[in-house]
């Protein structure tokens, strides 16, 4: 998962040329040809950097930069202003409106590339420093894990990916179950219902603090921490506590470097509310025609709810060994969306995992399944 650059210019030829140049250097490109679309794209795609033209009809680059800075989601994205306006006053206005660097057109591709690289490196260093607790506003990354239908392997992905991320990075990891009433993370790891979480969810949302949440996290032997939602079937009513879950989703990244949300199947109100707090999404899919069609609809719905396509990663989870099943390239073609990860069938390991409450990657750290999770986790780490 390469760094994502959003290019904003009303001149389509510039968009194309700069886009091609950066694409050849391995960046993931998205483009917008006016200010309004730029802001929408930035919210949907969460780019790692924005290359912003100044003189555009309707909304100037200065205004776009100001609005990006004003939104919680895009406040910290590095911005390079890229413009034909070369006066000192213009540069000052650019920097004052929130740009990090200023380049005048025409620019040598080499200079542009050097600026892009330098700014990306600087922002990564700043993020790492924050994650290590050096700055109060440190923020982790949230990965929402979901599927079109139940039982496709969402919880298996959440637990095994979380444990693998912890193992690879030694960073803090929280796996949070956001399915009150039908949570199975707790059962999978051997935890029982917690009264503390119910009390937390009954609190006024405004009063929920990071310390309150931290108190309810359960430490797992692997080093990850788990947030267990109330799990009795009747506890499904807690899904109506939208504002409380919103506070938890918003605050978890201030507690932990990686936050994995087990969102379960479909897009119930709780999941739709949480979408904006997720940086990335991992969708579990089965290699069957029905699952592919349903996943297609899920992806289309996510996109219509303002999740950029580039943030949606699909994991093909094969749970049964069958000669009738599709291979991943056919599945990918049918889905018309890249498949980022393939998990092969491991029925014995999976069965034992629930029997002894030990996720697959811990049971057999050198298994093919563990290797597949290492690959998946590395892709998320590299995407930072
Ligand atoms: N790679 C695999 N091979 C075989 N079985 C698997 C594999 N991955 C998961 N399973 C099994 O598939 C079943 C469903 O997995 P899991 O509980 O993770 O799905 P889910 O999407 O969380 O389900 P729910 O919607 O009920 O929460 C479980 O019994 C699990 O052990
Ligand atoms: Mg589950």
Question: What this model shows, in words?
Answer:
It is a single chain. The chain is of the alpha/beta class and 384 residues long. It folds into 2 domains: 4-131, Response regulator (Rossmann fold, 3-Layer(aba) Sandwich), CATH 3.40.50; 141-382, P-loop containing nucleotide triphosphate hydrolases (Rossmann fold, 3-Layer(aba) Sandwich), CATH 3.40.50.300. Helices cover 45% and strands 17% of the residues. The protein has 16 helices and 13 strands. The protein has helices at residues 12-24, 35-45, 61-70, 88-96, 109-131, 154-169, 185-189, 195-202, 210-216, 242-255, 269-274, 289-304, 328-335, 347-355, 360-363, 368-382; strands spanning 4-8, 28-32, 49-53, 79-83, 101-104, 141-147, 173-177, 218-219, 225-227, 258-265, 280-285, 312-317, 339-343. It has an 8-stranded mixed beta sheet with strand order 8-9-7-10-6-11-12-13, sandwiched between helices. Strand 8 (218-219) and strand 9 (225-227) form a beta hairpin. Helix 2 (35-45) runs parallel beside helix 3. The longest helix has 23 residues, at 109-131. The chain is globular. The termini are close together. The mean pLDDT is 90. Bound molecules: adenosine-5'-triphosphate and magnesium ion.
């Amino acid at each position: 998962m390469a760094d994502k650059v959003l290019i904003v210019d009303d001149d389509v030829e510039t968009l194309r040329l700069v886009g091609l140049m950066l694409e050849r250097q391995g960046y993931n490109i998205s483009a917008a040809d006016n200010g309004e679309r730029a802001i929408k794209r930035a919210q949907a795609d969460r780019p790692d950097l924005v290359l912003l033209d100044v003189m555009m009809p309707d909304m100037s680059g200065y205004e776009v930069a100001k609005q990006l800075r004003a939104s919680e989601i895009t406040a910290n994205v590095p911005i390079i202003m890229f413009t034909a306006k070369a006066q000192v006053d213009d540069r000052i206005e650019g920097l004052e409106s929130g740009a990090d660097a200023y380049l005048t057109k025409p620019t040598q591709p080499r200079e542009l590339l050097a600026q892009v690289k330098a700014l990306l490196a600087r922002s990564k260093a700043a993020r790492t420093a924050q994650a290590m607790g050096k700055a109060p506003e440190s923020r982790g990354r949230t990965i929402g894990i979901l599927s079109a239908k139940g039982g496709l392997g969402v919880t298996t992905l959440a637990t095994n990916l979380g444990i693998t991320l912890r193992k690879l990075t030694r960073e803090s990891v929280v796996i949070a179950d956001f399915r009150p009433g039908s949570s199975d993370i707790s059962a999978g790891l051997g935890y029982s219902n917690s009264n503390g979480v119910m009390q937390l969810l009954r609190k006024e949302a405004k009063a929920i603090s990071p310390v309150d949440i931290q108190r309810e996290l359960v430490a797992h032997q692997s080093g990850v921490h788990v947030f267990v939602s109330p799990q009795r079937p009747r506890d499904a009513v807690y899904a109506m506590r939208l504002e409380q879950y919103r506070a938890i989703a918003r605050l978890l990244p201030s507690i932990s470097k990686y936050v994995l949300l087990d969102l379960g199947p479909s897009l119930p109100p709780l999941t739709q509310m949480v979408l904006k707090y997720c940086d990335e999404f991992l969708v579990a899919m089965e290699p069957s025609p029905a699952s592919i069609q349903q996943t297609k609809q899920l992806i289309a719905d996510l996109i219509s709810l303002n999740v950029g396509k580039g943030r949606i990663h699909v994991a093909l989870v094969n749970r049964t060994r069958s000669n009738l099943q599709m291979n991943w390239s056919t599945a990918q073609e049918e889905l018309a969306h890249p498949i980022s990860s393939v998990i092969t069938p491991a029925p014995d390991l999976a069965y034992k995992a629930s029997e002894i409450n030990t996720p697959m990657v811990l049971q057999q750290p050198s298994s093919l399944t563990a290797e597949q999770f290492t690959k998946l986790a590395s892709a998320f780490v590299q995407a930072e």
